[in-house]
Known about the structure:
By secondary structure, the protein is an alpha/beta fold. 32% of the residues lie in helices and 20% in strands. Helix 6 packs antiparallel against helix 7, helix 8 runs parallel beside helix 11 and helix 9 packs across helix 11. The chain is globular and about 70 Å long. About 1% of the residues have low confidence.
Amino acid sequence: xxxxxxxxxxxxxxxxxxxxxxxxxxxxxxxxxxxxxxxxxxxxxxxxxxxxxxxxxxxxxxxxxxxxxxxxxxxxxxxxxxxxxxxxxxxxxxxxxxxxxxxxxxxxxxxxxxxxxxxxxxxxxxxxxxxxxxxxxxxxxxxxxxxxxxxxxxxxxxxxxxxxxxxxxxxxxxxxxxxxxxxxxxxxxxxxxxxxxxxxxxxxxxxxxxxxxxxxxxxxxxxxxxxxxxxxxxxxxxxxxxxxxxxxxxxxxxxxxxxxxxxxxxxxxxxxxxxxxxxxxxxxxxxxxxxxxxxxxxxxxxxxxxxxxxxxxxxxxxxxxxxxxxxxxxxxxxxxxxxxxxxxxxxxxxxxxxxxxxxxxxxxxxxxxxxxxxxxxxxxxxxxxxxxxxxxxxxxxxxxxxxxxxxxxxxxxxxxxxxxxxxxxxxxxxxxxxxxxxxxxxxxxxxxxxxxxxxxxxxxxxxxxxxxxxxxxxxxxxxxxxxxx
Length: 485
């Protein structure tokens, strides 16, 4: 019998703030226990610094330089994703997320799934959806929407959908959780569990939980370290990346908001417990390859080792460890004993691990450790984001040009060789909490990066796409609120 596949992406969660990796706040009590019967990777890395690039690598097994999908006007041929491959093998496939890159925007990532459940912009999904009548430029076909609503089988629900969308735009504090910019994890957990209960054959699913992405909005029972002051700072900040980089806000305020981030991680951890407990009660957990990880981390003011006088806020363009060192827990079908892997691992090996599990050759975790060094990179600002950043920052030089990193084992730690423009550095990493600068402008480090990336060629899988230019106004607004455009 073929195993099921469950990929859970804790969006924007860095290993540094996971208590299973030594964080001082108990953010992940469930994952701490789950590690006793799963494989925990101490040195896992994301291939990219933002959602689009890292998810493309995660789904395809290609390095960022191989797939080249780094901008909103790029797309990937869906036939290269592991979920499309599984669907061709007879799997039911589904994706459940607030993350519009994998559910809404036409970049090819959603096309490998039979079932796509994205942002819940309407309280009545079975009625007319007003977002289908609104163009990105804001020229709404209101007459057509009203006509469609009044002539539909559910006119009242259809009109209420319009009211809900208007409230979400104009008065976000008045709308319920499932209509907010970031929907709590339990909503998508429920969608997945309802879907899974109806499967009669093997299934493969991706659940991306956005609680760890700005804005951080943990419920009261999980907001153990934040409180009203931190929420006030977050609500008053219009742009959580560029207001700090541009000096409009002091860095201590960005650090203060980290307390809400910890609460959001605690909230996702509680949902992970409910999710996996339910699968266990249904008797399918031991028949499932479970992979729990993150697409990248977030920054709260950490200084850069290669970009002069620059600190990391949120994510996207930096090569800092706070963005690349991610949690990774894997439970293979039938696994009951915990295991810890110290070698550098990479999320680009996810498709290989899935295929090994499907063909029965899985070795309880070594699949995520590549034969060669682990590679990672961060693209510079795209044109749309340059325009946004320039509203706050005069000199965008530190935020342009590609950064590259190579990870390898060195004695009792991991060494990271990193380059940006003509700058290079070697960084020592003992664990998620202990990172230090070993040397700066080291020619050996630059040579190591150059040698590793010289063997990476464009795989020819990228195509031009409409990207955000073809999405509706609701989706565009959500992307803008989340800092993607």
